[in-house]
Design a protein that fits this description.
about 90 residues; 4 helices; single chain; globular; about 35% strand; TATA-Binding Protein; alpha+beta
């Protein structure tokens, strides 16, 4: 299985990023297939969906994405990586 690991720098606080993820990311159609089932544990979003499962960890100054893709997700790894990068960078 393929894996996506990204670290994105941000100027936002952890609280601001969490709010933006809840309000602007999780409802986006292109993200829903990857992160359809999700729950927060502290500053870590645990998520799973048709295309894979993993975590989004919020720290001061950065967002760390670690997702293991399913067989279906592996086939679209490049597109998924680009979508995640674009979506999270747009939040800055």
């Amino acid at each position: 299985m393929a894996r996506i690991q990204q670290t994105i720098e941000t100027q936002k606080s952890v609280a601001e990023m969490r709010n933006l993820i809840d309000t602007k990311v999780l409802g986006r159609p292109e993200i829903t297939m990857l992160l359809s089932d999700h729950r927060w544990e502290g500053n870590v979003l645990h998520a799973s969906g048709t295309l894979g499962k993993g975590t989004v960890t919020l720290d001061e100054g950065r967002v760390t994405i670690d997702i293991e893709l399913s067989m279906f997700g592996s086939a679209a790894k490049g597109k998924i990586e680009q979508t995640l990068t674009d979506t999270f960078k747009r939040l800055n």
